[in-house]
Design brief:
With 138 residues, the chain is mainly α. The chain has four helices and no strands. The termini are far apart.
Length: 138
């Protein structure tokens, strides 16, 4: 999922969670579906993130081995080799993908919390409304 797709998905979720006294029941019914949708996207994105992280780690290991053993130039420290690896376009691109995937995972996780918080807000509002109806004002 790209950041652009995430923004569109976020807008859809937010629009479906807008609630007031008139549509509380509809929003409560939608919440379970939204939780399932977001959890599915989150699971898929976490899998992609882990895959990208493994690719990054593998590429770093391969490049480290090359710089350490096969490079015509000898490097004094691990930091020097890491600096060379970080300058490579392929490694930079995979790191960029890893970072974007991490951003999407974090945002989806926050979205799941937002959905749960909205559900609690609605349920608490309904409880207060019920208490006020039964006992009158405080």
């Amino acid at each position: 999922m790209t950041i652009e797709q995430l923004a569109e998905f976020d807008a859809i979720i937010n629009s479906k969670l807008q609630w007031d006294e008139k549509n509380v029941d509809q929003v409560l019914r939608r919440i379970l579906d939204l939780k399932i949708k977001v959890l599915g996207k989150f699971t898929q994105t976490v899998d992609e993130y882990k895959d990208l992280e493994n690719q990054r780690s593998k590429l770093h290991g391969e490049r480290f081995k090359w710089y350490n053993e096969s490079s015509p130039r000898k490097y004094d420290s691990r930091k020097d080799i890491d600096d060379m690896i970080n300058q490579e376009v392929d490694y930079f691109e995979i790191c960029r993908k890893v970072n974007r995937s991490k951003i999407v995972c974090d945002h989806l996780e926050k979205m799941m919390k937002f959905i749960s918080d909205t559900e609690w807000d609605i349920r608490n509002w309904l409880d207060v409304k019920k208490m006020l109806k039964e006992y009158g004002s405080f």
